[in-house]
C-alpha cells in the first residue's frame, strides 16, 4: 500500500472521522491545531506559524465547526484544551511528523535497527571479490538485515532493476546498461595461475611455452573454448591448447589445485590463495573494470545509499597483492 494512503488512513483514524469526510478538511488547519495545542496561546501560535492573529482565529473557528468541539477555551494561563483536544494532541503531532517526513524525504537510515532484505545480482567472481569482503560490515553494522544474492543474467539487469526485483547488480563497466546509475568499483587485470609450486610457473614463460600448456577457460554461456586471451593471441597469429571449458570461475580454482592445468584468471581470485601460484602472462591481455549498478528510483533512498557506501568502502583502496 502506498505510503501516502497509509498516512491518510492513519490521520483519519486519529481524528475519528471517515476517509470520505477527510477531503473536507484543510490539512493546514491540522497544523494550526497542533501548534495551538503546543502553545496554548493564539498570539504565540500565530507568530510560530507566520500568520496574522486574525487568521489563526479564523482557522480555529473552522476547526471548532469541523470537530463540533471548542477544542481550546480561555483560561487563567492562556488557552485551555478540551478533553477532545487532549485526545488529539499526541497522535495528531505524530501523524503530522510522519506526513512531513514523507513529503520532505528527511528519513534517516539507522543500520542497527534496520530490517531490510537486500537483493543483489552477482557472478561467482563478484561474490568472492565484492560481496564476501563486505559481509562482515553488513552483519556487524546492520545485524537484522538480510542479503539475497541472485544469479547474474546480464541481459536482464536493466529490467530487473527497473521492476524493483533487485537493489544492486555488479557487472563490467563497458557492458553496463546506459539507463542505470553506475559507480565504478575497481579495475581488474589477468594473471596466469596454476597449483602451488607448479613447475612451469616458477619462471617467466615464452609465448610458445604458454600456448602449449593445457588451459582451462570460463565460458559463462556454456561450452565455449575461447575468450579474451584467445583474441589477444589471434592478433599475433597464435592459438593455445584449451583442454577444459567451465561456466564458473570458482570451479576453475578447484581444477587448478587438483591438476596440472593452468588458467588465465582475474588477479583478485588468485592472490592470497596459498593453494595457487601465478605469474604475469607472456602477452598483453586487456583487463576490465567492475561497476555497481542501480536504478534511479532508489538513488536517494537512505537505506540504499548506505548499502552502496558499504560496497564502495570495501572495494576502495584495493591494490594488487603478491606477484
Instruction: Give the number of domains.
Output: 3
CATH topology description of the largest domain: Arc Repressor Mutant, subunit A
Count of helical regions: 13
Shape: rod-shaped
Extended strand count = 12
The major beta sheet can be summarized as: 5 strands, mixed
Helicity, as a percent range:
40-55%
Write the H/E string, N to C.
Answer: HHHHHEEHEHEHEEEHEHEHEHEEH
Please identify which CATH superfamily of the largest domain we are dealing with.
Winged helix-like DNA-binding domain superfamily/Winged helix DNA-binding domain
Structural class: alpha/beta
**Percent of residues in beta strands:** 15-25%
The CATH first-level class of the largest domain comes to: Mainly Alpha
The average pLDDT is 87
What's the arrangement of strands in the largest beta sheet? 4-3-5-12-6
Amino acid at each position: 500500500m502506498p505510503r501516502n494512503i497509509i498516512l491518510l488512513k492513519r490521520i483519519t483514524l486519529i481524528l475519528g472521522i471517515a476517509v470520505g469526510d477527510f477531503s473536507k478538511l484543510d490539512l493546514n488547519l491540522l497544523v494550526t491545531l497542533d501548534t495551538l495545542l503546543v502553545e496554548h496561546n493564539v498570539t504565540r501560535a500565530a507568530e510560530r506559524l507566520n500568520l496574522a492573529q486574525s487568521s489563526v482565529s479564523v482557522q480555529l473557528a473552522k476547526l471548532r465547526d469541523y470537530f463540533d468541539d471548542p477544542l481550546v477555551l480561555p483560561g487563567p494561563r492562556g488557552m485551555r484544551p478540551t478533553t477532545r483536544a487532549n485526545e488529539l494532541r499526541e497522535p495528531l503531532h505524530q501523524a503530522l511528523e510522519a506526513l512531513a517526513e514523507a513529503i520532505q524525504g528527511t528519513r534517516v537510515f539507522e543500520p542497527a535497527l534496520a530490517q531490510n532484505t537486500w537483493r543483489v545480482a552477482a557472478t561467482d567472481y563478484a561474490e568472492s571479490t565484492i560481496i564476501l569482503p563486505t559481509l562482515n560490515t553488513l552483519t556487524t553494522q546492520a545485524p537484522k538485515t538480510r542479503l539475497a544474492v541472485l544469479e547474474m543474467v546480464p541481459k536482464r539487469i536493466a529490467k530487473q532493476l527497473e521492476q524493483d526485483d533487485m537493489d544492486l547488480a555488479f557487472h563490467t563497466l563497458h557492458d553496463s546498461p546506459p539507463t542505470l546509475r553506475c559507480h565504478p568499483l575497481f579495475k581488474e587485470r589477468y594473471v596466469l595461475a596454476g597449483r602451488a609450486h607448479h613447475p612451469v610457473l616458477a619462471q617467466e614463460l615464452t609465448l610458445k611455452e604458454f600456448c602449449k600448456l593445457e588451459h582451462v577457460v570460463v565460458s559463462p554461456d556454456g561450452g565455449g573454448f575461447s575468450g579474451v586471451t584467445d583474441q589477444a593471441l589471434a592478433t599475433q597469429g597464435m592459438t593455445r591448447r584449451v583442454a577444459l571449458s567451465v561456466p564458473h570461475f570458482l570451479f576453475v580454482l578447484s581444477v587448478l589445485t587438483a591438476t596440472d592445468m593452468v588458467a588465465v584468471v582475474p588477479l583478485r581470485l588468485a592472490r592470497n590463495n596459498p593453494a595457487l601460484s601465478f605469474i604475469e602472462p607472456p602477452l598483453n591481455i586487456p583487463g576490465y573494470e567492475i561497476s555497481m549498478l542501480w536504478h534511479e528510483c532508489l538513488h536517494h533512498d537512505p537505506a540504499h545509499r548506505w548499502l552502496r557506501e558499504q560496497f564502495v568502502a570495501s572495494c576502495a583502496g584495493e591494490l594488487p597483492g603478491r606477484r
